Amino acid sequence: MDKHSVHEEIKCRLLSGNACYYSVQNLLSYSLLPKKVKVKIYRTIILPVVLYGCETWSPTVSEEHGLGVFRNRVLRKTFGPTRDEIIRECGRQHNETLYDLYTPSIWVIKSRRMRWLGHVAHSGKRRGAYWILVGRSEGRKPLGRPRHTWWDDIKMDLQVSGTI
User: Fold this and answer.
1) Model confidence over 9-22: pLDDT tens digits?
2) How many CB atoms neighbour CB 79 within 10 A?
3) Which residues contact 121 (CB under 8 A, 6 or more apart)?
4) Which domain holds residue 29?
């Protein structure tokens, strides 16, 4: 998959997630709904729309940042401003508070990518996805630095988790 098409796919997914958020915005802005329920709605309705097909993505740092910005923006709009009762002022939700509410999207992408790798490796040689995973491209390599691939991301995920 070309890197440009992955970038376009992520942009399309973010736009779809934005449309999904605005379709349930009235429900999420209801003040009597507990935070746990709002996070569950986000996790079960909005997030699957955004992360559909993320197992095959190899996002760049700027694309990871864009996914984080989307998550923070949706959660900030959902929970509204914080209110300090002592000094009677309102302020924005801090990123640390939002991290406590829900896991960052990039961790979800990494876990799904690892699960998909296990599924493809387990399927064996009878599936085309296995041959794409273990196959090598033919022909000459282009000049310059090699592109960052999905397999490179898998290797980094395995090193971070301590499996390798």
Assistant:
1) 999 999 999 999 99
2) 18
3) 130, 133
4) 3-161
